[in-house]
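User: quick one - fold this with coenzyme A bound?
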Amino acid sequence: MAYENLIVEKRGPVVRITVNRPEKMNALNVRTREELLAAFEEIGADREIRVVVITGAGDKAFIAGADISEFSGNTVLEQREIMHRSRAFDAMEDCPKPVIAMINGYALGGGCELAMACDIRIASSKAKFGQPEVKLGLIPGGGGTQRLPRLIGESKAMELILTGDMITAEDALRIGLLNQVVAPESLEATTMELANRIAGMSPVALAMAKKAVKNAARMNLATGLEAESDLFALCFASEDKEEGVRAFLEKRKPDFKGK
Ligand code: COA
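Assistant: Sure. Structure tokens for the protein plus coenzyme A:
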């Protein structure tokens, strides 16, 4: 697919996706969500790519939510069809590769929800977070009502969703929405260092680990523990597991091939 609103760049084993509508604060219109869906399909099938980093263009916004200009005039059925068609955030969550959000500015509404669908979130100290949908007479529709309470607990999630208030990156870190906050000038280096470090692990193990952790929010404890045992055992089918164990015993760095 030829992308109009995304920049997709491969940097060794890391692919970087930039949502590129800076004049609209990188708001997610339908086209951009469809492009994200297509990009994650391609990334899932590309063996060279081991880690995904997603960010926003410019220095103001990560993503300032869904494109509000597309909200007027739709019938209920049209809106429902749009929401079911472009489930890009679910594709990110289901992507077998780790996805890191590099949050350079406003992460509001769908932007905050997209970040929550990522596996790790690193933000600039300038970034701001919120679910302001209630101010538009709406509710979060990109997973916010489900992923936010799972990440930060119902109490804080309820407060953010019912007030629509914006919070700082430091506050987002404190309540568990973020993994790390760094100075704006360190955001790229910190994120790429982490992405490359993770890219050095076995892609098979990364995929199994991501699936097992995601199961925690999708299964009850007994089923999740059973699935974890199965995924652990499945790692024994990989050459990477042999390489990892042998490298440890031979006191050398493993060379994982993703097989
Ligand atoms: N959808 C569509 N356009 C958006 C947008 C969105 N979610 N967020 C920002 N824009 C557009 C603005 O309309 C403006 O376009 P214009 O220059 O054609 O008028 C442009 O991006 C710049 O935004 P502006 O509001 O002028 O910048 P700001 O620095 O004053 O404020 C925000 C930045 C992010 C605080 C503010 O734009 C905002 O509140 N956006 C909406 C956030 C939101 O409610 N998201 C949830 C949607 S469900």
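One thing worth noting: Residues 13 and 146 are 31 Å apart (CA to CA).
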